[in-house]
Automatic annotation (TrEMBL):
Protein name as it appears in the record: Glycosyl transferase family 1
GO biological process: one example: carbohydrate metabolic process
CDD domains per record: GT1_Gtf-like
Erythromycin biosynthesis protein CIII-like C-terminal domain ranges (all copies): 315-405
Signal peptide annotation: none
Organism: Tengunoibacter tsumagoiensis
Glycosyltransferase family 28 N-terminal domain ranges (all copies): 3-127
InterPro entries linked: EryCIII-like_C, Glycosyltransferase_28, GlycoTrans_28_N, UDP_glucos_trans
Keywords attached to this entry: Transferase
A GO MF label: hexosyltransferase activity
Length: 430
């Protein structure tokens, strides 16, 4: 197959598609990964052909409007409005760039954020479309709530099932309301295609012969009311590229004391950077531990701040996390996968959207305590959570067991097998 993968979002949204690209290349497919210019160096470090969808050097959250919303701890619906507005501005450019990236392809693989872009190209030029998702979003089921609503009551069971179905219906309508206008305008102007209906997001399984869910069935088993075209593969996790090496100063820091605690919020890192550093320092002092804190490279450079705290701009999760005694993060799907796979307890500090969902899944697995909202996080609350986690032997044992199980999963291999099966099924036409 000649495949173009179109991925839009933060670095955490893009990383799984690097892993998938590697798997597909190793299986003999020709791959092009079309994503933001900000990730060109990252993608190429894995020897994956790259095509830029834009010319922006910063990711989706590293701009003034996004940082302000994060600083306010805005609700997920307001934040979705902001993301939709930003994507709408670039939609015509994304479509034109994606068209060029897909010129030689027979198959287009899309992430949820790039679905409207990729489906338009696939429709116009008669290419096979494969949809992928990183969270169980926009797929109706009575089994679990929409990820932005993990707080919905589940008892009595009939009420829970009804509320779950309603939450998915509302999410499908709201997503269409946000994203369809810009896409439909570009479809008409660039390709003379008819508008997509408001029901578009309620029909995802009908739009593709294969829908891949890039998360573990250990965290989210497949609901019985989903169609056979939907496959839960396991997480798509990257290993650090061969060219990557940790800083010598970081190695020295790790070797000169007990295992540290990792604290990092991914693309959410621009949120109050100085206050975050001070809060983490105070927390570590309270509990007598050492820590490694992820900071935005545009604000602070990698450095050893003290014998107790080391600041990093970037690090390979698969290398660092198994060396930690606990991991504190924002609850992104990819970071959740990496922290659980490392076999150490996880504390989730949600900022927005589906991060609460993954935080609740960690709790249900017994691998971490209840999430703390980033808006309400204090050094005292973080210290209490960490003290509890570090002294909870049952939780630490459970985290090790889950890590072993996830390490035995191979989500990329399962995805590649499903794609190969689709290619071998002669009944599936372009």
């Amino acid at each position: 197959m000649n495949i173009t993968i179109i991925a839009i979002g933060s670095r955490g949204d893009i990383a799984p598609y690097i892993a998938l690209s590697q798997g597909l290349i190793n299986a003999g497919h020709t791959i092009c990964l079309a994503t933001h210019q900000a990730y060109a160096e990252l993608v190429r470090s894995y020897h994956i052909p790259f095509f830029p969808l834009d010319d922006d050097a910063k990711d989706l959250f590293q701009e003034e409007g996004g940082e302000q919303l994060l600083a306010k701890g805005i609700n997920p619906y307001r934040f979705a409005q902001h993301v939709a507005h930003r994507i709408a501005h670039f939609t015509p450019q994304y479509m034109q760039r994606a068209q060029e990236a897909c010129r030689e392809s027979d198959t287009v693989i899309v992430a949820l954020a790039s679905l409207l872009i990729g489906s338009t190209i696939a429709e116009k030029y008669q290419k096979r479309l494969i949809i992928t998702i990183l969270q169980p979003m926009l797929l109706s089921t009575a089994a679990l709530p929409e990820p932005t609503s993990p707080w919905l009551p589940q008892k009595p069971p009939l009420l829970g099932k009804t509320m779950n179905l309603f939450s998915h219906m509302m999410a499908q309508y709201y997503t269409g309301w946000l994203f369809l206008p810009a896409a439909n305008a570009a479809r008409k102007k660039l390709y003379s295609l008819p508008p997509l209906p408001r029901s578009f997001y309620a029909t995802l399984p009908n739009l593709t012969p294969l829908l891949l869910c890039a998360y573990s069935p250990l965290l989210v088993p497949k609901p019985t009311d989903w169609s056979e075209t939907i496959h839960i593969t396991g997480f798509w996790m990257t290993k650090h590229p061969e060219s990557w090496q940790p800083d010598n100063e970081l190695i020295d820091f790790l070797s000169t004391g007990p295992a540290p605690i990792y604290i990092g919020f991914g693309s959410m890192s621009p949120y109050h950077p100085l206050q975050t550093i001070e809060m983490v320092e105070e927390t570590l002092t309270q509990i007598g531990q050492r820590g490694i804190l992820l900071v935005d490279k545009y604000i602070y450079k990698t450095q050893k701040r003290s014998d107790r705290l080391y600041l990093i701009n970037d690090v390979a999760h698969d290398w660092l996390f198994p060396r930690m005694q606990a991991i504190v993060h924002h609850g992104g799907a990819g970071t959740t996968a990496a922290s659980l796979s490392a076999g150490v307890p996880t504390i989730v500090i949600p900022h927005i959207s589906d991060q609460w969902f993954w935080g609740e899944r960690v709790v249900q697995l017994g691998a971490g305590p209840q999430p703390i909202s980033r808006k309400h996080l204090t050094s005292q609350k973080l210290a209490e959570h960490l003290h509890s986690v570090l002294h909870n032997q049952k939780m630490r044992q459970k985290a090790r067991e889950i890590g072993n199980r996830l390490q035995n999963e191979d989500g990329v291999d399962q995805a590649v097998k499903a794609i190969n099966a689709l290619e071998n099924d002669k009944s599936q036409t372009l």
